[in-house]
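Note to self: user wants both folds in one dump. Writing first protein now.
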Amino acid sequence: MCGIVGYIHLNPSQAISVDLMAMNASIRHRGPDDDGFYQDARVGLAMRRLSIIDLKTGQQPMSNETGRLQVVFNGEIYNYRELRAKLSAEGHHFATQSDTEVLVHAYETWGDDLPKHLRGMFAFALWDMDRERLVLVRDHFGIKPLYTAQLGGTLLFASEIKALLLHPQCPRRLDTTAFDQYLTVRYIPEPRTIFQDIRALPPAHVLIVADGQIETRRYWSFTPLSNPYPDQASAIEAIRETVADSVRAMLVADVPLGAFLSGGIDSASVVAMMSRYSEGAPVKTFSIGFGEREHHWDELPTAKAIASHFKTEHHEFRLEPDIISLLPQIVRGFDQPFADPTALLLYILSQETRQHVTVALTGTGGDELLGGYMRYKGMMQYQRYARLPRPLRRGAARLASMTIRDATDGRMRSQRVRRFLESGALSFDQAYLAIVSNLDQQRKRVLYTADFRATLQPDYGFIHEPLQGDDPLEAILLTELQSYLPYSQLVYGDRMSMAQSLEVRVPLVDQRLIEVAGNIPLAWKIQGGTTKALFREAMRPFLPPEIVNLPKQGFVMPIALWLRGELRAWAEGLLGQLGQRGYFEPSALHTIFQEHLDSKRDHSQLIWTLVVLEIWHQLYFD
């Protein structure tokens, strides 16, 4: 696990000077153990290393036998031993035991098809000196980040935006489309970033620089097939075998490993499989929770029961986070606005976990792959509800908006009922967007100033386009695999753990598992109102019954409660400052905050989104 930075001069006459050492130093947290550099007349490559595999001889940049290929690599290749054996049989000679060295020899054999052979999480830059080609590659799901910026005749790249912003010629111009998307879904869909001149290399893409030209192309995509399983028993067995195989593959390391353990079936299943393959040593597990006042948000008792069942070496942390001082650190970790408050939890959990292990496995991805979110169930119900006459649904929407109040104690049922009824009069894709949205178009018209609205060119294609197939209900999971999972869940998983120099692995985000679970009908995954029905059955032999049958709770923070209490004055002050920037009508911001204080509507997610935006603005523009 590392961080990488670098550059290539596209046009020598317009090339700019680059301080490679400063860029690399800015991401030291991603790899505190070592660094490495390569530079010639055209390119510069650098990396920071967090030593995981081959602690003695895994230094980077790494080259082939002739030194004509140079690579810097961030991530892990889980099938590197299989690839190494295959390449050795074809005559390649390896000087190290590192997974990184596989990349240069695999490139010699397969060229640009190299990433198709990799199973893992990765972002790497490979310089082919003989052909004067730079190849940038990002993994299938975007688990590991990679950003680029073209400044004059030079292309810069880095694992984090902060390294690019160090360059004095990198402008900080706001991308208003990305701004609007952030207000809508609380994250910024790639390849956009909040900065006009910085872009992310999308997941499953390769960027090639040759002859001064830049070409970007996709090397892998998941296309669902018609259900290949003759019955549900076959699908259950396929899930069981693939999850076990994925966890086993991700246990390779030369340093201590552990697992994040919530009270849910995903992390419990990962721990169950780790216990099977840990060769007698107890699995180290780590959980985080709150005090008595926030017990509706707390999963510690369930996590402790799971840990006891598997006899893990369990560590639990109770926190009263100092959000006011921590949030600027969180924002710096992302370099752009990101509004899932869970990021703060993961930041603290990673800090505590890093005292004991260098690698932690997590259950991220199970909900998207296996039908775990309540919104999937809600959209299934929507299809039946949409058969009612539209005037009746419109009346129900108005009545729900006027009469249903959101709960203030962490329970989401009333809010889910209201949002379902409010979206019931819309088309399928509009209803789905309304359910996943933080801020709808009607509220935006009130909230945005007229001058700022005039600058916007809204784009929600990342949600709408995948839903236009023959069966939009089935397309929901594919949509979230291409949006919410890579741009929200995997982003905060990487940034918050790497801020603490902790590697996090995600065995439920694996192309082999996608090829199994992605072809299973949603109606099998959610049955009788039970989410993850097939996954529960697949894991039943390995988990205690009370965990298999436990409803999803979620890994969230009691922000709604805190905004009415200890964070009230702080949040109100930040909203006041944000109201002076020209994006929002100050009176509309005040109304939103007052509705939340009066418990008329739970606006905690929106308020948090706005507060994060103001702090980001102070850090990166002021």
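First done. Writing the second protein, which came from a different request thread.
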Amino acid sequence: MTRQVSQQEVNEILWRACDTFRGTLDAADYKDYILVMLFLKYISDVWRDHFEQYKKQYGDDEERIRRRLQRERFILPYVEVKDGDEVVDRFLADYYSLHERREAPNLGELINVVLEYLEMANKAKLTNVFRNVDFNSESRLGNTKKRNHILQHLLTDFADARLDLRPSRIGNLDVIGNAYEYLIGKFAAGAGKKAGEYYTPPEVSILIAKLVDPKPGERICDPACGSGSLLLKCAQEVGSDNYSLYGQEAISGTWSLCAMNMFLHNINSARVEWADTLLEPKLIENDDLMKFDVVVANPPFSLDKWGADKAGEEARKYNRWHRGVPPKSKADYAFISHMVETMAEQGSRMGVVVPHGVLFRSGAEGKIRKSLIEENMLDAVIALPPNLFFGTGIPAAVLIFRRDRGQRSSVLFIDASREYDIGKNQNKIRVGVEVKKIAETYKAYQSVDKYACLVNGQDLQKNDCNLNVSHYVDSYEEAQDMDIDAVLKHIHDLEDELGKVKGDMAHTLTELGL
């Protein structure tokens, strides 16, 4: 009987495979090689698994087996290597063929060829997905000898029998998708500032998903989707497969991560576009911005040179900046304005992570903020703890907007900035504790002493539409009276204990002749 593989085993094996690159490349760079190889290994195992099933079913009827394989989720073609007009090698474009040829002097080139054949055979799904990774790159992997050495080790690491990813072995567990997310998180921890380009901590993604509460049948969008983790958490929150996912990502390598992430989570129909959302929105319908029931994002904080100089041209197209043009050096309200304009007219919700400056900065940002409040779309402001995000230690907040607020005319402020787990490099909010408390407080939509406060629009106007949570939530805790006599007694007891320890140590050293 085949032993069921555990998630932890798969994660540990994959993380050890990264040793091949440590000392050669930064985590922000070698992640591409590891994640592409994981994707190749997975689709190769699925293909082999299904081939064996069809072989049992159809015996030696190769034509029927071939036709069935042509209807697979991913098609694995045959690679033909030629010397002039002569075919000198022919093999399936999969991981196992590469592993058999791992001693080839042109190994990096062979891997690139396999990926190229895969892309051509699966154009609708894989076009450009592998364009950012070059397994034959001398500038990144070194000369031929060093490059072959690295790639041989990589292929050998993935040959571990415990990394058999056939569906018949791993069952219905989301082992592959979870492993992919695990690796992205580990890479982010080692990538420093670059991690912010593609990774939102899972606890923050889960929190936002719970706050926007996506329902079956809804369209969900992230216009700055990174590797897609926030979209996936929203999808999981739906509780069924009845949803549509949309995203856009400006960085091509990160877009590739997102595409593979969706496939490895068994989501085939997500539409994720590659382009700059602010300069070139690609999610267009009937010559206008698409509308969504749920819009979420953790956009780059205070992005500089985002395209404010093109505001006039933009106004003629999609008119996203009609409340005001955000400062050219800070794109925060550009992302917010875009997201608001893509919200459906009825019942739509939006959750966005922002730096604290968004809550109180004046000028053009103050004008936009005031308009959004006057339009009665801002529903909640949630202050998060510091140092939650990779690449920045600054505190952030989550803004929740709703198109259809019904009878609500106040804004709920929640101060969740003081409750978190202190980590070695990053702080963390626990899903079953802090995330649950924030979500339940928002759902109740009532003031909570020292934690949450409902503020009406008039009071916001009096404060010049300043959304700084500390203005509204009194989190001051009175200091407890100190028993001076008890403290002095405790100090005296400690001094007595210290004297005893010193005496015992001196006695021991004397006995040892020291």
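Dump finished. Worth passing along: The mean pLDDT is 89.
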